[in-house]
Amino acid sequence: MARHDDCSPAVIKTLCEKAGFPLDASQASQLVGYLDLLMRWNKMMNLVGARHWRDALDELILDSFHLAAFLRSRILPHLPGAPVTWDLGAGAGLPGIPLRIVWQDGSYWMVESRDKRTIFLSTVLARYPLKNTHVFRGRAEQFMEGKQADLIVSRAFMPWKELLSFVRGHLSEGGCIVFLTREPLNRENDLPWDMTASMRYTVGNADRYFCAFTERRD
């Protein structure tokens, strides 16, 4: 398969290691494949704002690796060993695809209602299978009916307070929802949720945030 410019496993391994996220050969190869598909499909359907793989790596992929580190250090110790994770509004697979390249515990569902994006996600998984990683094409309400997750991740699916209301009752005991945001979220006492963890990190020159909430059960 022709690669996009100079995007190779060796180059990806070097860049990710410099950023503090070492990859093995298999992970680097999968990430190269994903970036190649992302950039090719992006020309046809505007999946992401980045127009070059290096921009996508710096602005989007490393974001997912920061999330993996946050989950391992602050969230996963409090969840079952094989958590059920939902990625609501999965879009082009960010953070889902890079996250699953480096973390494959439990099951991971990318939920997306837009047909073209689910076709893209399914194409990625068909070419570069990721353990227990799935795509659901349809509305989140339909997917969640009668189910619970241990972990929900969301980037701009809907305003955070609305999303807390939307997923209420769909998290297991002790489960949490993690928001990826560009602004810090504040703990609010009038909400039936507790902010259990947060982290500020930097991608490029911009500060970004993870905020985790657990449903309060009185």
Structure notes:
The radius of gyration is 17 Å and the shape is globular. The chain has helices at residues 9-18, 25-45, 53-75, 96-102, 115-127, 140-144, 160-167, and strands at 84-88, 107-112, 133-137, 149-154, 171-181, 193-203, 206-215. It starts with 8 loop residues before the first helix and ends with a strand. The protein has a 7-stranded mixed sheet, with helices on both faces. With 218 residues, the protein is an alpha/beta fold. Helix content is 40%, strand content 25%.
**Basic shape:** globular
pLDDT < 50 stretches: none
Beta-strand portion reads: 15-25%
- What is the assembly state of the chains in this entry? single chain
Q: Provide the succession of SSEs.
A: HHHEHEHEHEHEEE
Average pLDDT reading: 94
Helical stretch count?
A: 7
List keywords for this structure.
single chain, 218 residues, alpha/beta, seven-stranded mixed beta sheet, 7 helices, 7 strands, 25% strand
Question: Can you describe this structure in just a few lines?
Answer:
By secondary structure, the chain is of the alpha/beta class. The protein is 40% helix and 25% strand.
Topology:
Elements: H1 9-18, H2 25-45, H3 53-75, E1 84-88, H4 96-102, E2 107-112, H5 115-127, E3 133-137, H6 140-144, E4 149-154, H7 160-167, E5 171-181, E6 193-203, E7 206-215
Parallel strand pairs: 1-2, 1-4, 2-3, 4-5
Antiparallel strand pairs: 5-7, 6-7
